[in-house]
């Protein structure tokens, strides 16, 4: 998720608090029950497993490739689940992982992806939003051999995000870019993830 897209506006808001100090919000269970699904929608169950195979929690390492060949590494965690009556998959990508952070260490990434399968066009509409870095990217996704390829073009640059080396318990996610007209790929980030828990 290392590709930086255009900044999007964020409106400032206020939260009301009760006398006990807790925010007066809808119960988490209400929101989760409306959003969460127990599995894929029956009318598209098979194609939904392209990303459905990742349902669950993952832990690992992210390597960010900075200019001049510098590398920055961090722990990371990723969580996938069914949402919206099983017609979509939502995932959350966090770095550094929340457990094990040093005192005061802030998020470098805390974003979410919504993935919706288009039954007519046979590809995926994908939206990634990371408020930490003020990034919003929209792209399409499809299987390419044993991999999953996601692409979009922005400002004359072809950006590709790819799931590769996929097994039931691990996968490698990478981001890279090249000129829109073609040329060498420049690495942006690599996530090396293993399934965590059940």
Structure description:
The chain is mainly β and 198 residues long. The protein has a domain at 55-99 and 107-196: Lipocalin (Beta Barrel), CATH 2.40.128. It has helices at 28-35, 45-52, and strands at 56-65, 71-83, 88-95, 109-118, 123-130, 135-144, 147-154, 157-167, 170-179, 186-196. It is globular. The two termini are 24 Å apart.
Comma- or semicolon-separated keywords:
Lipocalin, disordered N terminus, 8% helix, 198 residues, single chain, 2 helices, mainly beta
Shape field: globular
CATH fold descriptor of one domain: Lipocalin
CATH classification class of one domain: Mainly Beta
| Main sheet summary | 10 strands, antiparallel, barrel
Query: In the CATH classification, which architecture of one domain applies?
Result: Beta Barrel
Number of helices: 2
Q: What's the oligomerization state?
A: single chain
Category by helix and strand content: mainly beta
The share of residues in helices is under 10%
Poorly predicted ranges: 1-22
């Amino acid at each position: 998720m290392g590709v930086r897209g255009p900044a999007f506006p964020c409106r400032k808001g206020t939260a009301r608090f009760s006398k006990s100090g807790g925010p007066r919000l809808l119960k988490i269970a209400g929101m989760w029950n409306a959003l969460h699904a127990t599995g894929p929608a029956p009318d598209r169950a098979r194609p939904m497993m392209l990303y459905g195979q990742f349902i669950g929690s993952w832990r690992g390492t992210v390597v960010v490739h900075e200019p001049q060949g510098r590398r920055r590494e961090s722990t990371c965690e990723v969580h996938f689940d069914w949402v919206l009556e099983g017609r979509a998959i939502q995932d959350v990508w966090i770095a550094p992982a929340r457990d094990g952070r040093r005192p005061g260490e802030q998020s470098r990434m805390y974003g979410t992806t919504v993935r919706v399968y288009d039954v007519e066009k046979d590809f995926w509409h994908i939206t990634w939003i990371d408020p930490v870095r003020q990034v919003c990217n929209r792209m399409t996704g499809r299987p390419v051999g044993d991999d999953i390829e996601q692409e979009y073009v922005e400002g004359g640059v072809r950006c590709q995000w790819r799931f590769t080396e996929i097994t039931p318990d691990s996968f490698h996610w990478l981001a890279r870019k090249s000129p829109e007209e073609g040329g060498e790929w420049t690495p942006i980030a690599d996530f090396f993830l293993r399934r965590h828990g059940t």
